[in-house]
Write a structure and sequence with these properties.
Strand content: 25-35%
Subcellular location: Secreted
Number of domains: 2
Helix content: 10-25%
Shape: elongated
CATH architecture of the largest domain: Alpha-Beta Barrel
CATH superfamily of the largest domain: Glycoside hydrolase/deacetylase
Keywords: Signal
Number of strands: 20
Structural class: alpha/beta
Number of helices: 6
Organism: Neobacillus rhizosphaerae
Radius of gyration: 25 Å
Order of helices and strands: EEEEEEEEEEEEEHEEHEHEHEHEEH
Pfam family, one: GBS_Bsp-like
Domain NodB homology: 212-377
CATH class of the largest domain: Alpha Beta
Length: 377
Amino acid sequence: MKKLINLVLISTFLLSGCSLLEANAKTNKDVTTIKHVVVAKEPDQGESPEVNDNTIFDPKGTISFSPLTYQSTKITITTIDRTENVSAINYHIWRTADGQESMKIFMSNQKENNYSFMFDTKEFLDKCGEFQVEAYGKLEDGREELLAKSAVTFQQHVPILMYHAIDEYKGEGLKDLFVTPANFEVQMRYLKDKGYTLLTFERWDEVNKVNKPILVTFDDGMKNNLNAFRILQELKDERFQPAATEYVIAGYIDSGSYRLSTEDIKEMVNSGIFSIQSHTMSHADLPKITNYEEELNASKEKIEQITGKPVIAIAYPFGHFNDKVVEETKKYYKFATTTKPGQFIEKGESDELLLMHRVRISNSTTINQFAALVESR
């Protein structure tokens, strides 16, 4: 067995805005706070017991998590329903995004409290996201055995950027909706250099499994969005895999030189960079209409016929919606974005994925302002 070096961590707690959305409420409500020890791993032989990935793991207990209020950064972890008699439990914990090499070990010998341990995200620099948890029991003969494993998620804030035109402003339209190609490139290079992970709605289940998740979205399906497409193509390399979402107005496809064509859309999709989603059939003000089938479903079907891929997200035109619009939208879409400002975070609220906030990027947005808008909360 390897030699263990016990280090007591003392640090100042900073609230980082994490949110615990899912937690097993099966643990004792009146759990005493237990002091814990961080065990430093040695790089050579004597590593922690390993589980053969080719065998089926037979749990000998259940890891349980206490429920917490929104924006909490701490959680009580216990191991219940144990079938082995153990004198202590070592909890091996690491962030999914950082890999098992980021693992830290925390020990509890509090048998009367089901080996309770208070985990705090400050142990991982206040980072949120999904954490892997494994419970190793110390047997009477001194051996360690894996009893249970699970995962717990502290929700990350996700900036969903909102762009419209990527072009020089030439006097037509609203200037604030135009971001120059040069500024857009600087902004995307910032995301690349700072280690952001660009996602689309098809990969929403990854938002807590990657570092710095962010979505880049474009409204209206304008031809000049090809400027953004070319820039993202140029920035792509082994380290940076760009991804973006284009909300097209289905009835405007192939409608003129200012709009994306069917061939443009196919090229964008086939690149693996762009996901094409809906902005309705005619950019209708949804609270004022009754023909929801045409605006919501027919637009979805038309885009799917072009791309050959499911359309699962929509941007409300003008950012307008009401309860009726949300009820109709959920018949056809899993996600819907508004123009309400701010980063998005899942809170477990009803229909929240149909009411997603976005971060508006405008003509006047400086790179310093951009950095502040996308900064992790």
